[in-house]
Design goal:
This protein has about 120 residues and is an all-alpha fold. It is built from 6 helices and no strands. Helix content is about 60%, strand content about 0%. Helix 2 packs antiparallel against helix 6, helix 3 packs across helix 6 and helix 5 crosses helix 6.
């Protein structure tokens, strides 16, 4: 019986020391943010929000899921061949081929918003 009590006490100490009982009255308000909320991650979320705001203001967001648009925005900036600077219309057509639900006009809006927010150095 004494061994069991010691084992339970030892387990409780380990859980408390490692933060295993965070929902049981511990105050972790001064703790560092989890790795998923690093400053870089917050900056990326802010950029995504700015990108979606621009796209929404142009009427593209209404029928498209946010994450798909964000992925397309990042895809625009992965222009390894430099098509954006040479022929932005062709680059937008490539975006349409990536997501067939976009019209050419919507692709151009997504492209312009992506360049403004994610990769301004790639502006034509």
């Amino acid at each position: 019986m004494v061994r069991r009590s010691l084992a339970v006490a030892a387990t409780a100490l380990i859980l408390l020391a490692t933060g295993g009982l965070t929902g049981c009255g511990s105050d972790r308000s001064n703790a560092a943010p989890p790795p998923s909320q690093s400053p870089t991650h917050g900056a990326e979320e802010e950029k995504d929000a700015r990108f979606l705001t621009i796209v929404e203001q142009q009427g593209v967001l209404s029928a498209k899921p946010d994450m798909n648009l964000v992925k397309l925005g990042h895809f625009v900036c992965q222009d390894d061949l430099g098509i954006l600077k040479v022929d932005p219309g062709l680059a937008a057509a490539e975006l349409v081929s990536e997501d067939h639900s976009l019209s050419q006009a919507e692709a151009e809006i997504v492209q312009q918003a992506a360049i403004k927010v994610y990769c301004p150095d790639m502006a034509p």
